[in-house]
Amino acid sequence: MRIRKLLLLTVVLTLLGGTAIFADTVSQKVKIIFNKQEMDDDGTLIDGKAYVGVRSLGDVVQGIVAWDDSAKKVTIYKPNVHMFLMTGNKPFGSVAKGKVSFRVFAQIDNLQTSISGFKVTIADPYGDETWIDGRTDKDGDFPSDKDNFWFTSADTSYEFKYSGKYTVRFWMKPSDNSPMQVVSEKTIISK
Predict the structure, then answer these.
(1) What is the pTM of this model?
(2) Which of 93, 112, 117, 191 has the highest count of CB atoms within 10 angstroms of its CB?
């Protein structure tokens, strides 16, 4: 009886180990690169098809990812958000190191979902992020026509301390209590 149990246990463990090895050879990790930007999460190659996480895909295409649990459905909304930066009456994309006063202009269209807020931030070359301006649906000047609106930030005085790339980001918060998600970026070069 004891030998039978030992033999059965050996067969079960052998099958489990073989299944794990087979599963590992069936699915392989793959790197996903979009516009020369490597995604944080690796994709998985199964039966010759690459699969990637929806949240990672939404982040890299700068879209709003919405999950409907009752329908078991994921939707990615990609609004058109065009930003440009002005110092005085002149647009700019590069600056000398030092303090600069500027505004961010954003034109938003094709927004196909409700949002409860948005913000604009700037990150230095080391990733330290600073809030520039934003609105929530509780503000009186929150855009009521969310499909198409313009936004002009308040004048911002910001010190470009380092040489390198600074990133201005436009974030949106979906109405479903999801976190803020980046929907557009603009780069400023500081020399």
Answers:
(1) 0.78
(2) 117
